């Protein structure tokens, strides 16, 4: 769903009405991931601005809520307070993976290899789940067999309407 809001250009202070979206779905997944869906070009100065606002994203079998102002939303799979987290969750769920286990692997890698670098899930190939290190710009992979082993080893308390990140994931795991 689309709605119109007042917008003041941060470059030239021009006031205009712009469209924003309450809800988006997988038909616009690429524009969500690259943020072009949220980019507005000012009618007066032609400068581009990325609009940052809360919305729901309907994926294949899941719903995420991006909360810009710490709003809480019910009946969603996850709440994301950071756009990077939202992008990562979309990629994880679209690849059919468990985000709690992905956070566990990121924690494990940081604890034993990277010493608290910021890692992001970056996709997978036939053999590996790939993580990207935002600090060093390196990638590293974990064998899918290891992922599958831990997926079967742990029990997950997969609750809805929660944020699952590098600090909270442990609350949702039992071994």
Estimate what percentage of residues fall within beta strands. Answer: 25-35%
Largest sheet: 4 strands, mixed
Shape: elongated
Whole-Å distance between the termini?
41 Å
Give me the number of helical elements. 4
Strand order of the largest sheet: 3-6-7-8
Radius of gyration from CA coordinates: 18 Å
Overall mean pLDDT stands at: 93
Contiguous runs where pLDDT drops below 50 for at least 5 residues = none
Number of strands: 13
Order of helices and strands: EEEHEEEEEHHEEEHEE
**Percent in helix:** 10-25%
Specify the structural class.
alpha+beta
Account of the 3D structure:
- This protein has a domain at 83-175.
- The model has no long low-confidence stretch (mean pLDDT 93).
- It contains four helices and 13 strands.
- It is of the alpha+beta class.
- A four-stranded mixed sheet has the order 3-6-7-8, with helices on one face. It has a three-stranded antiparallel sheet with strand order 9-10-11. It has a two-stranded antiparallel ribbon with strand order 1-2.
- The longest helix has 16 residues, at 99-114.
- It has helices at residues 29-33, 83-94, 99-114, 144-153, and strands at residues 2-8, 15-21, 23-25, 39-41, 48-50, 55-58, 63-66, 78-80, 119-124, 128-133, 139-143, 155-156, 173-174.
């Amino acid at each position: 769903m689309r709605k119109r809001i007042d917008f003041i250009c941060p470059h030239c202070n021009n006031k205009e009405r712009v469209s924003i979206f309450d809800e988006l779905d997988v038909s616009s997944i690429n524009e969500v991931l690259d943020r072009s869906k949220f980019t507005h070009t000012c009618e007066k100065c032609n400068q581009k601005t990325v609009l940052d606002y809360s919305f729901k994203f309907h994926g294949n079998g899941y719903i995420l809520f991006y909360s810009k102002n710490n709003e809480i939303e019910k009946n969603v799979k996850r709440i994301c307070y950071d756009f990077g987290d939202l992008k990562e969750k979309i990629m994880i769920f679209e690849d059919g993976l468990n985000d709690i286990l992905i956070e566990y692997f990121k924690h494990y890698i940081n604890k034993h290899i990277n010493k608290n670098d910021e890692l992001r899930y970056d996709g997978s190939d036939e053999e590996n789940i790939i993580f990207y290190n935002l600090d060093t710009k390196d990638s590293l992979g974990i064998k899918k067999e290891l992922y599958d082993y831990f997926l079967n080893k742990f029990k997950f308390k997969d609750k809805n309407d929660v944020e699952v990140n590098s600090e909270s994931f442990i609350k949702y795991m039992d071994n």
